[in-house]
Design a protein that fits this description.
Layout lengths: L19 E4 L9 H17 L2 E6 L9 H14 L8 E2 L4 H14 L2 E4 L3 H13 L23 E4 L7 E6 L3 E6 L7 E3 L7 H12 L3 E5 L3 H14 L5 E5 L2 E2 L15 H6 L4 H10 L12 H7 L10 E2 L2 H14 L2 H14 L9 H11 L6 H12 L8 H6 L2 H15 L6 H15 L7 H9 L7 H8 L1 H11 L1
Parallel strand pairs: 1-2, 2-3, 9-10, 11-12
Antiparallel strand pairs: 4-5, 5-8, 6-7
């Protein structure tokens, strides 16, 4: 599924350079479904163009960043098949590079050292807010004064002039214009000389060669400030595409209440990775009247123009429908392996039958399942051990009259030479005709004897899948 990583193919329109995208999660929790969709869009866009898709772990929040969260992100991306081209870049490890970039900008006049005390800064910000203006530090003026000896300072961007305009030509939102007077002298280096998020992102994108920034529209307000900083450095501004966030089925911001789970939890709920990719693709991207788009199709069709401007809604019924589609398409041997893994993760008993028995059954039983747990349920009649446990309804179906009829049916089934559902069905129909009853008088009792009330397909198919020996033994158990 993974395309080559050579940087041939489509190029960035501004410079002719190969397309490079990045996914940049913060390791403060699991990889949630919105992050997974962002990763997918970046992966698809780069793969289709023959470019590079990179991963950056934005771990500058040292208090909340954890190794467990990093592993959850990497494992989630691996399960989805969205591994990056090369190892992840860890933002915190690049702090020295970020400081160097900020100090170089000071030397060029694009940034300045600010010696305001916290009290002075608060007073100036309050005054600016009262006038409806962005905060400007007096230290932006080179002639403002002499820094106090050994005073702590922060490094700030020298924001654009009040009459300047910052335009972000966004591929989803259109052209978004911000007046220079709306951008403050924001901090690049804190007083302990650690970089801020705004500085680190801009420097990392430049050093990684990122040409396209595809991310959630909660970052749209950052785009103008980052563009101002990029221009101060004299660097190329990447192409932006800010995608609407995913909402719950009630139209409100997605939360755990709606099912905003970690990607690995969807795996544990029994969804296939290819189904999740197809479902996430449709949460925010469309092409004509196509409904379910496979990854192979998406690698040919995906474009930024297909991204919608309205928030998408998480719909588990649709997710189930998409998953059912891909279960039907999946290789039977692979599904058996996935079913075994799923049973093990849930702490269920090992599937007692070998693949030789389970794989042929998959072709019949996967048609009735939307998830791996449902698939296991479909196999439960096959996996049950004799003597079967029978509920009250099943016991009631096995009356003396029914058992007597099953006793007459047993030699008929024993005489079937080719144990396939077509010949078995013929034998059952002939038996019903010989008994002078409709099959409705035979089916419920036979099903109760064979399955113990567990879900099962058409009886002739169920008999074929159980095998002749097991089928006859289950009939003997009720005699």
């Amino acid at each position: 599924m993974h395309a080559p990583t050579e940087t041939t193919g489509h190029t960035h329109e501004a410079t002719g350079s190969a397309i490079v995208t990045r996914f940049a999660p913060s390791p403060t929790g699991y990889l949630h479904i919105g992050g997974a969709r962002t990763a997918l869009f970046n992966w698809l866009f780069a793969r289709k163009a023959g470019g590079k898709y990179l991963l950056r772990i934005e771990d500058t929040d040292r208090e909340r960043s954890t190794e467990a969260a990093v592993n959850a992100i990497l494992n989630g991306l691996a399960w989805l098949g969205l591994e990056a081209d090369g190892p992840p870049l860890f933002q915190f490890a690049r702090a020295a590079r970020h400081r160097e970039a900020a100090e170089s900008l000071v030397e060029r006049g694009g940034a300045f050292r600010c010696y305001l005390t916290p009290e002075e800064e608060t007073a100036l910000k309050d005054a600016a807010r009262a006038e409806g203006k962005a905060f400007r530090s007096p230290w932006r003026n080179p002639d403002y004064g002499t820094p106090p000896p050994a005073a702590r300072y922060v490094v700030r961007l020298r924001a654009p002039g009040d009459n300047e305009r910052i335009e972000v030509a966004d591929k989803v939102q259109g052209v978004v214009t911000t007046a220079g007077r709306e951008i403050d002298d924001f901090i690049l280096l804190r007083s302990d000389l650690t970089p801020t998020y705004m500085l680190a992102v801009v420097v990392d994108d430049q050093d990684m060669g990122v040409t396209h920034v595809i991310r959630g529209d909660d970052h749209l307000t950052n785009a103008a400030r980052q563009t101002a900083l990029i221009r101060a450095f004299g660097w190329r501004v990447p192409t932006y595409a800010h995608i609407p966030l995913i909402h719950g089925d009630d139209g409100k911001k997605l939360s755990k209440r709606h099912g905003a789970l970690g990607v690995e939890e969807y795996r544990d709920m029994g969804y296939l990775p290819e189904a999740m990719r197809a479902y996430l693709l449709r949460l925010g991207w469309s092409k004509g009247d196509l409904d379910i788009v496979s990854t192979e199709q998406a690698l040919e069709l995906f474009d930024l123009e297909g991204l919608g401007r309205s928030p998408s809604r998480l719909d588990f019924a649709k997710m189930d429908s998409v998953n059912a589609h891909f279960i039907r398409l999946a290789d039977d041997q692979r599904l058996v392996s996935l079913m075994r893994e799923h049973a093990a993760r849930r702490g269920l008993p090992d599937l007692r039958l070998d693949d030789a028995a389970l794989v042929p059954a998959m072709a019949f039983l996967k048609e009735r399942a939307k998830t791996l747990p449902e698939l296991l349920t479909q196999f439960s009649f096959l996996l049950a051990e004799r003597p079967l446990t029978r509920d009250e309804k099943t016991i009631k179906a096995l009356s003396e009259e029914v058992v007597a009829r099953l006793a007459r049916l047993r030699p008929v089934l024993a005489a079937v030479e080719t144990w396939e559902h077509v010949t078995i069905k013929t034998a059952l129909d002939d038996f019903a005709a010989h008994e002078g009853v409709g099959f409705g008088k035979i089916g419920p009792g036979l099903r109760a004897a064979l399955t113990g009330g567990l879900p099962a397909p058409d009886l002739a198919i169920a008999l074929q899948l159980l095998g002749k020996t097991e089928s006859l033994l289950r009939l003997d158990d009720v005699m």
